[in-house]
Amino acid sequence: MISKLSTSLLAVVLALGGVQAAQYPLTESHHGTTFFDGWRFPAETYDNTTNGDTFWATAQNTSLLYTNDAGRVILKVDNTTSVPYNEKRYAPKLLSKNTYGPGTVFVMDAVHLPYGCSVWGAFWTQGANWPAGGEIDIFEGINQRKENMMALHTSGGTCTIDQNSQMVGRIDATDCDQSANSGSGCTVYDQNENSYGEAFSQAGGGIFVTEWTNDAIKIWFISRSNVPDSLSATADTFDTSVLGTPTAEYSSSTCDITNLFEPQTLTLNIALCGDFAGLPALLEQTCPVLEGDKTCYTTYVIDDASATYANAYFELNYINIYTTNQTAGNDVPTVSGIGKSTTTITAGVSKTASGTGSAATNGTNAAGSNSSAGRNGVEWGLMGLIGLGLSLII
């Protein structure tokens, strides 16, 4: 027979276990004039992976990468240059200096997302050996669409969407393997039309949250009017349990998350045309039909594009990383020409501001060892409580 004391103790143990599973400490905060210090530029100078028509901007392209008077970060497509035929247009692409593993939450707060005919904006992660290392598409929007698209991309093994998963998004394709669905991945569309395009900015933007654990990869979109008070640039911890049903969920019950996803690099970019936004069948869903032998490139990218790309920009309040993972690689050198770093990088417990006299850290430093030991102590403590509770029950 279970006593009231046993019942109460067990409830406390389960509650503690639930809190530990849902809460994550802040380890990086990218915002304001120091935003760019946590990111690097791609090695390649142009879009050589999606057949897009962009040269990637660098630190010298200060008219495309900057912080505005409101303290928000702007990443935009060049819409002031008349581009001659056979040339490409400059656009932004940033990759995180760190890599991340399971036990991580990515948060992007934006007031404007890039949209317009030929525009292909994305906030996503990728493994070093893509597609073998996996990809998580958190935000991806093209042309004049009205909704965000989320997806996983994998290679080898088994990864599909569990049709019984609880989510509010619309499942479009269930097989995540890169060889299936013409390489689209297992896609889920947000049914909230405030999740992309003009409606997104008119609603004041919103927040995208991704939780990656070995049990599931979950993505939420919260429109500005519904953002909880606990979601802010300065929140030291984040509890995913306050978010409710995710927009998209990829469960380990049908996807081998543990083996198909290696440490991920965050990527933020705007491509033009290319293998997705530039496909005539997709482009013409929301943009005028291409005339004669015109292509996406000749119609939109070249010549004057001041109106075409007037809305082709990110305007970001912040990107925060919350993680309990100790194995992700953390290396945050200062980006020359962008500004002084105050990005907080640690192994998951306390925050160290780089650029303020503290050295950049990595996943094997003393801070990581101490935080790991502390967490292990909590875990053993919980196990002891569980053991005590069970002994009382018995």
TrEMBL record:
Region (Disordered): 352-371
Keywords: Signal
Transmembrane segments annotated in the record for this chain: none
InterPro entries assigned: Beta-glucanase-like, ConA-like_dom_sf, Glycosyl_Hydrlase_16
Signal sequence, start to end: 1-21
Pfam families xrefs: GH16_XgeA
GO MF assignments: hydrolase activity, hydrolyzing O-glycosyl compounds
Transmembrane in keyword set: no
Domain GH16: 19-285
Superkingdom per UniProt: Eukaryota
Record protein name field: GH16 domain-containing protein
UniProt organism field: Kwoniella europaea PYCC6329
